[in-house]
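dumping this here before i forget
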Amino acid sequence: MEQYNVCFLGFGNVGRAVARLLAAKSSELRDLYGVEYRITGVASRRIGWLAKSEGTNEARGLDVSSLLDGSASPNDSSSANGISDWLQLAQPDAVFETTSLNPESGQPAINYLRAVMQSGAHAITANKGVLVHGYRELNELAQSVGKRFLFEASVLDSAPVFSLFRECLPAVKLRGFSGVFSSTTNVILETMEAGRSFEDGLKAAQELGVTETDPGHDIDGLDATVKVCALANVLMNLSLKPEDVTREGIRELGSSRVQAARTQGKPFKLIARARLGGKGKLAASVRPEQLAPSDPLANVRGTSLAVHFELDMMPGLTITSHRPNLQSTAYGLLADFINAVRSNDRRN
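structure:
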């Protein structure tokens, strides 16, 4: 039985959901995979850099219940000064990184993940910004230090997209993809189809907890654009940036136009597309489109998300994440953790 030190960089809704899921799945981790864990470090803007070092009295690490109810404090542990000090005190084997998205640069998450792997820990992230601005560097670093850099939860929550290509589709060539990547715009458009206002739709999405911290990132297509870049960079070995993607949001779609499209049987959805053209040039866009009923993305409704791949070995492959929630996002991170430590065990 192997015990792993795990740490959290960022401890908002997603980080707390991962901590709860680890606790709920602890018996399965132990009995099925021979994995035990303790939380030795948590860092967030609210609680600072907390670590339970080897020299403290509590050998089991930080108390999970106090972390989840918000009562954890520096008095319960050692308080570090920044990422390097924190990693030295916490001695992690794996770190969950769930800090806020920075679509312009991917920072400070990229610097954090670099430091994590240089310290000897696996890096597991839900941050799509790092795949846009730092994927190649971080992936090469992971290989050089013999650690895993995994990010399944970054685009389609727990749906296996990156691992599907990595493990199950060797030698396949990805020619292009299209997707519904925004639960928020789905909810807004469907609310407008029902005769209510744009504002009502946004409020409904916020109440469901599916919007970005800045809902403009969803409405104006920026979040979907970042996901397009993440997929293209990882799966097509490109260096696509948000400014390379033609982008149009849903703000200018009036209710009457949205309702008319639904009546026609060709509703609007915010569609992300990327396709290789002549000489290997990629054309990428995010914009509202009317979809025919035969389109593989036409029936993606509510908070569900989907991606359709065009491959040289098959005409199409569609993956749908039905009504993803906080727990499914957390599961993507948990699955990455299990795969990271199991792969390390196999190498040893």
